[in-house]
Amino acid sequence: MAEVIHPEEILEEIAASDLLKKVMEKKKEGYRLSQICAALIDGKYELSYSFADDVSYQYITYRLVIETDVEIPSITEIIPQALFYENEMKELFGVKVKMISLDYKNKLYRIRQETPFGPKEA
Amino acid sequence: MAKKSVIPYGPQHPVLPEPIHLDLVVEDEKVVEAIPSIGFIHRGLESLVDKRDFNQMTYVAERTCGICSFQHGMGYCEAVEHIFGVEIPERAKFLRTIWAELGRMHSHLLWLGLLADGFGFENLFYQCWRIREKILDMQEMTSGGRLIFSVNTIGGVLKDIPADMLRTILSTIDEVEAELKTVQKTFLNDYTVQTRLKGVGVLTQDQAHDLGCAGPFGRASGINTDMRKLGYAAYPYIDFEPIISSDGDSYARCECRIGELFQSMDILRQAIAKIPNETDLATPVKGNPNGEYFMRVEQPRGEAVYYVKANGKPYVERLRIRTPTFANLPGLCEMLKNTELADIGLLILTIDPCISCTER
């Protein structure tokens, strides 16, 4: 039988103002950014930032629930590789992310429709 | 100081299996920066959650990629099964493991062939793809499909693999193992191959970690992680350890994937030896899923994340598939810095890019 790791999987809701602090903490603790996911649920954005530890396999997701007109800071200053995730949620969902280190300005995905998964006009 | 110029690379290029574009900033023949553009084949598969119910989405998830389609279907099903809180039958767990490892073998053999083609060793390319055909035949024999199996369902699998087919798989992997040993010698010992791969496109362990590299690409730089250790499917019953290397160059990536091919054969033998005799292949689920889950599986290219959020209705609210190539793009850009322009095609191949996966 192989050793099976049953990591703790944590989902923690945080305020947008705490995002950079939490990301910095995880980076210092040696976590790797696993993914960022945007979802439009009940007219609000749910943004999930998941961090993985490659030794313990622990998986921590920070959840931000924000109004669609709220601007959030980019984490690319701390984790440069987040730029693809941030550009993706900006282009597909219309999430307002400020100061992405490399902003593709809606050219990451070559699609005709602007923010196809974003809020629909009433 | 040489003048900097920008060379567009792709999306159509003989060495690229799928479309990706890179703006290469070069000084003379040396690349100093690479800026990628994707999005040529974005299909909006995740948005189909509005039109397909949670059962039908299994088949949509499978179509994320033609190479690791089984694992996409499995990853999605495992996520939904966690939300339902159902335990799938033991035999189904082993069947998923068998199909997943066959898929890993054909993916790695495909990659080895493309790599050989990339450095101009046509005969080696033919040999890899010839061996791969045997794996595809096994997939067709057991599932009916050479690449897309459609055998996953929420709660288990739809098809069984009878005992005679399991014996055929064992005899086939014996043949494949013997042939692969010959091919392995060329990849790992041939002087010409070593000249193209050793010390080229080095990514250190720290860089790989900071850039979030996944799968064999990260393991070749010393990242000791493998999502199969999380114990989904029948992996808790299988003895294996992640194949890692510390050199972080193109040769190490090749070495890791060849090691994983032999590891997959070992896993297949263990799984076939331990598969229980059961008739139940799927646990029925009642109602609709309600909850959310992040499922991680180890695809041939590395960690894939399936996030499913459901609210008790037939249509899930959100399906997010984070594929390994998406995670490996920053590592690719870093690796390309300070390399020769002539090596770019080969180096892109060493991350085993799957752009269909990346764009979904």
Return the CATH topology of chain A. Answer: Beta Polymerase, domain 2
Range of strand content of chain B:
5-15%
**Lateral strand order in the biggest sheet of chain B:** 1-2-3
Number of domains of chain A: 1
Output the radius of gyration of chain A.
Answer: 15 Å
CATH fold field value of chain B = Cytochrome-c3 Hydrogenase, chain B
CATH level 1 name of chain A: Alpha Beta
Q: Distance N terminus to C terminus of chain B?
A: 42 Å
- Poorly predicted ranges of chain B: none
Average predicted local confidence, pLDDT of chain B: 88
User: Could you give the order of the helices and strands of chain B?
Assistant: EEEHHHHEEHHHHHEEEHHH
CATH architecture name of chain A: 2-Layer Sandwich
Describe the structure in your own words:
The complex is a heterodimer of chains A (122) and B (360). Chain A has helices at 19-28, 83-93, and strands at 9-13, 32-41, 44-52, 59-67, 71-73, 96-98. Chain A has 122 residues and is of the alpha/beta class. Chain A has a single domain (9-98), classed as NADH:ubiquinone oxidoreductase Nqo5 subunit (Beta Polymerase, domain 2), CATH 3.30.460. In chain A, the strands form two sheets. Chain A has a four-stranded mixed β-sheet. In chain A, a hairpin with a 6-residue loop joins strand 3 (44-52) and strand 4. The N and C termini of chain A lie far apart (57 Å). Chain B is α+β, with helices and mostly antiparallel strands. Chain B has a single domain, classed as Cytochrome-c3 Hydrogenase, chain B, CATH 1.10.645. In chain B, the strands form three sheets. Chain B has a three-stranded antiparallel β-sheet with strand order 1-2-3. Chain B has a three-stranded antiparallel β-sheet with strand order 6-7-8. In chain B, helix 3 runs antiparallel to helix 9 and helix 5 packs antiparallel against helix 9. The longest helix of chain B has 29 residues, at 90-118. Classes of the chains: A alpha/beta (122), B alpha+beta (360). The A-B interface holds A 1-7, 9, 11, 30, 32-35, 37, 39, 41, 46, 48, 50, 52, 54-55, 57, 59, 61, 79-81, 83-84, 102, 104, 107-111, 116-117 and B 35, 37-40, 42, 44, 46-47, 209-212, 223-225, 229-231, 235-240, 292, 294, 296, 303, 305, 307, 309, 317-318, 320, 322, 326-327, 329-331, 359.
